[in-house]
Amino acid sequence: MEGGTGMMITGKARLAGVLGWPVSHSQSPRLHGFWLEQYGVDGAYLPLPVAPEHFAAAVRSLVDLGFRGANVTVPHKEAAFRLCQEQGNTLTDRARHVGSVNTLVFTAEGHILGDTTDGFGFIENLRAGAPLWQADAGPALILGAGGAARSVIAALQDAGCPEILLTNRSRARAEALAADLGGAIRVIDWEKRDDACGGVSLLVNTTSLGMTGQPALESDLSALPQSAVVTDIVYAPLETALLAQARQRGNPVVDGLGMLLHQARPGFEAWFGIAPTVTEALRTHIIAGQK
Ligand code: ATR
Q1: What would the mean pLDDT of 278-284 be, rounded to a whole number?
Q2: DSSP string, 48-113
Q3: Mutate to test the pocket of ligand 1, among 118, 153, 207, 240 (most ligand atoms within 8 A of CB)
Q4: Whether pLDDT at 1 is above 60
Q5: Ligand 1 mean position to 72 CA, how many Å?
Q6: Residue 7 pLDDT exceeds 90
Q7: What pTM was estimated for this model as a whole?
Q8: Which of 28, 56, 261, 281 is positioned for an S-S bond with 18, CB 3.0–4.6 A?
Q9: 222 pLDDT higher than 50
Q10: Average pLDDT estimate for 105-122
């Protein structure tokens, strides 16, 4: 599966890519390139380094160039949302609710549809990795209140989770997020996060703690029911200290790499016309690319 784009391209090739600044660390070209090759698609998916001040013009140029669409990553997700709010463009309901966009689809008429698929990726990864987990089984405890938490919480609410317990180092940010998203969200002090584990059916780390090069996430899981699913959006390392601790005490665990893989599915389908699947071979390919 090495080689990437190039082999299948004709004059009719469908084009897509990822806009980021920088974009060199993005796994998306490798991920979509794997599927393009696997499905024998006449198409290409390119890294597109674009500085923030050029973002809107760059997207319009992609439309003019006949691209099918693009992914949008740091730092452009909010700018992409604003662009899709402009006259003639559209947002999916979930993108409007979350307030950010990571997937752009260009229509034949040159309009831009903005979607956010991180929450979809999160739920699909949970369903694949913990098939017994049910959204309505009980409350979910979410660590962190940044952009990732927003997508995760909105998706959990949408899936039918009855209550969200939300804790963040800066409590004010958690309160603002709760007020903004609405629904049943209870904010808990960061210092009380271990006690808050009692009675939850899902525990999610959305902070950067535990990532290679970042401070450790200190947590004591003794109050957590053994049936509760534990997942981490950090995927480097694949098994974070949180997941190792949860696994050792017998909780079902789901690592964060699958979220990255599953969030890519809606874009690939919209641009290239094939609904791709997340396989062990794809996982292995992405893990190999991280080294
Ligand atoms: P993302 O969009 O990936 O969620 P972010 O918006 O920068 O990134 O959010 C990072 C999250 O990690 C936040 O919840 C942040 O807590 P604060 O809102 O208090 O900053 C959390 N985080 C980062 N470093 C942390 C640390 N050392 N201790 C506790 N929480 C931390």
Answers
A1: 98
A2: EE--GGGHHHHHHHHHHTT--EEEE-TT-HHHHHHHHHSTT-EE-HHHHHHT--SEEEE-TTS-EE
A3: 207
A4: no
A5: 21
A6: no
A7: 0.96
A8: 28
A9: yes
A10: 97
Ligand 1: centre distance to CA 257 (Å): 19
- Going by C-alpha positions, the residue among 177, 117, 183 that lies closest to residue 144 is 177
Buried b or exposed e, range 119-138, using 16+ CB within 10 angstroms = bbbbbbbbbebbeebebebb
Ligand 1 surroundings by CB, under 6 angstroms: 144-149, 168-170, 173, 206-209, 215
Nearest CA to ligand 1 atom 28: 169
Structure confidence by residue, pLDDT tens digits, 8-24: 799 999 999 999 999 99
What percent of the chain clears pLDDT 90, i.e. is strictly above it?
A: 97
pLDDT at 5 over 70: no
The number of the ligand 1 atom at minimal distance from the alpha carbon of 143 is 14
Q: Which residue has its alpha carbon closest to ligand 1 atom 26?
A: 209
Residue 155 CB partners (closer than 8 Å, separation 6+): 94, 118, 119, 120, 122, 123
CA 84 – ligand 1 centroid, Å: 27
pLDDT tens readout for residues 134-182:
999 999 999 999 999 999 999 999 999 999 999 999 999 999 999 999 9
Q: Which of 25, 208, 259 to mutate to test the pocket of ligand 1 (most atoms within 8 A of CB)?
A: 208
CB neighbours (10 Å) of residue 221? 18
Rounded distance from Cα 34 to ligand 1 centre (Å): 32
